[in-house]
Amino acid sequence: MKSYFWGIFLISTGVFLLIKHYFNLNVSTGRVVIGLFLLSLGASILIGGFGVSAGDRIMFREGTFKYDPSEDEYEVIFSEARLSFDDFVPKDKPVKVEVTCVFGSLDLVLPKDAKVYIDASCAFGQIDLPDGSDISFFGNHRFTDNVDKNEADLIIDLSTVFGKTEIRR
To answer: Which end of the chain is more exposed for a tag (fewer CB within 10 A), N or C?
Structure first.
């Protein structure tokens, strides 16, 4: 989605200036423009046009990540996202990835043909693991495909704070 912030801000500021000069109002322009700035920012966030979506980070919007071997960290902040490891190819040594979900919702799709080791920690949130276990509110849990950390193809260090993460295959 596009950002509507500048459009809302410039149009509302222009309308204010026209009304102020047409009716010869004695109003502080600086205070009103700052107020219009904040209102425009809030309206843009509510409409959904404000946000950041980079290769490894999603903020204030919905999005999808696909595993990229050059990335070792993924962040979901105030967002709803899906992180898919479908394209993951096992290497000679374990690949370590850090995943963080803060004030958001994350759907984490694990690779089907790889041995996975997940070290999950949760604070004020919920993590649903593929074996049917979950972490609610506070806690730590390790999920493995019956392998040691050094034998795993993919090691995921997962942190969820004030959010929900669902992990599935």
So the answer is: C
